Amino acid sequence: MDMKKAEQYHELVEESQKSYRDNPDEHKNNKIELATLDTDICKEINLYTYWQGLGYEQKTPHIKYLLVGQDWGNPFLGRDDFIDRVIAINNGHEEPYYEKAVFDTDDNLVELFKVLKDSEGKPYNIDTKRYDDLIFTNFCLGYRKGKESGGMPKELMKRDAVFFKRLVEILEPENILCLGRLTFECVFDALCGDKTQKPEGFGGAYNDFIEKYKPIDAEYGENKTTRIFPLAHPGYMGIMNRINKKGTIKEGLEKQKEDWKKIMQ
Predict the structure, then answer these.
(1) Pairwise CA distance, residues 150 & 145, whole Å
(2) If you write DSSP's letter for every residue of 45-91 in order, what string do you get?
(3) Cα radius of gyration (the chain)
(4) How many Å apart are CA 134 and CA 54, to the nearest integer?
(5) Which of 51, 172, 213, 243 has its CB surrounded by the most CB atoms within 10 Å?
(6) In the prediction, which pLDDT does 77 show?
(7) Can you give the pTM of this predicted structure?
(8) Which residues does 2 contact at the CB level (< 8 Å), separation at least 6?
(9) C-alpha closest to that of 180 among 152, 156, 212
(10) How confident is the model at residue 236, as a pLDDT?
């Protein structure tokens, strides 16, 4: 275990949550209000981290893939017992994060990760196992107080950019997998800023960009780089948008699997 990384991660979790408590007006607009959770609920950088990345502070392992989503939504809607399970995990119980068929996004993500290979050369089975070299988080570290999803502006997302960059500097991931266009843009801007020329096709159709982009290496810290991958969101709308709303969910998911195969290359 790297004590320095463990301390930095712990401080980042505390400081990011404190930012929401001390400056609530900075994390809302006229449609969306974001807040943090009580300290006895979320002890990781994000609730998503309870799926993959749980206990990073105790191990500080090498991270091969950092998966980044947009925002978690409202944690008190849709999963009646989810928060209870998170609290149980905090208390030392071996509770699962994933529950099949609760959300299509999670089910599809399970299938997409099977495209990638773990340290033993086997497909990742994130539905049944936690892997030391995976960490999940959302770029936005706040949780919605109202409706579950929709309408997130880039400006509100980017208020957590400084925390995301610090997270990358701590984790030093080999690869960052970005779910959705807004997430990719926020990740790119947070790590590259204005100093790096936007990749070819950045401002065009996102589907075209996913298919045609060249490897994107972002520099951070002291001459360190991580590779960023623009991917479609694995939820219903993200899958259907990936095939321009033509075809079936199954066909859209197969299209996304082709996108994920590029990560292995």
Answers:
(1) 13
(2) S-GGGGTSSTTHHHH----SEEEEES----TTSS-TTHHHHHHHHHT
(3) 18
(4) 9
(5) 51
(6) 78
(7) 0.95
(8) 60
(9) 152
(10) 93
- Three-state DSSP class for 247? coil
**Within 10 Å of residue 98's Cβ, how many Cβ atoms?**
17
- Whether residue 203 contacts residue 189, with contact meaning beta carbons closer than 8 Å, is answered with no
Residue bearing tokens 């843009």: 185
Residue carrying the six token digits 């009646």 = 80
Q: How far apart are CA 194 and CA 150, in angstroms?
A: 28
**DSSP reduced 3-state for 175:** strand
Average per-residue pLDDT in the chain?
92
115-141 b/e (C-beta count within 10 Å ≥ 16 → b): bbebeeeeebebbeebbbbbbbbbbbb
| C-alpha to C-alpha distance for 222 and 47, rounded to whole angstroms | 29
Per-residue tokens: 28 = 């809302």
**In this predicted model, what pLDDT tens digit does every residue of 195-209 receive, in sequence order?**
677 888 888 899 999
pLDDT tens for each residue of 29-64: 888 999 999 888 999 999 999 999 999 999 999 999
- DSSP 8-state assignment for residue 121: S
The predicted model gives 8-12 an average pLDDT of 98
Cα–Cα distance measured from residue 225 to residue 103, given in angstroms and rounded to the nearest whole number: 33
Residue 90 tokens, joined? 């905090």
Residue 154 and residue 208: Cα distance in Å, rounded? 21
* pLDDT, greater one: 103 or 88: 88
